[in-house]
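Practice problem: predict the structure.
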Amino acid sequence: MQSVSYRLRLSRALALAGGVLLPLLETLRRWGTWWDHPASFLDDWLIGAFLLVGVWATQSPQVQQGLSVLSAAWGFACGMLYPSIVGQWQALQIGRPDPAPISSEAVFIVKIVLGLGAVSGLLLTLTAPERVRR
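Answer:
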């Protein structure tokens, strides 16, 4: 019997959480101000959508390309979150406030955690065997 590896299950769980939470958190963060920087608002929605596509693509252990799609989604998330983290760091250095209802420092910490989650998801997916026998 075929089953999905533990690493892939964990990566998929992280992708599902990220795919739902990122758009939700970004919407809360920029509520009422999204039109000031629409690209900054939409990037988390794109990451979330791509992660959910990755979860969907890995539904069946029979789908060989599913791991590639999930890996690409995590790579996209890493690539989008890195400049967001750096931009937040730079904003902190010059004292520019964040539109979030929490402190700019807290937003920075959240972004660091999300970035580490994205790197972890990518590593879990890349190291997951395509199929595992029970």
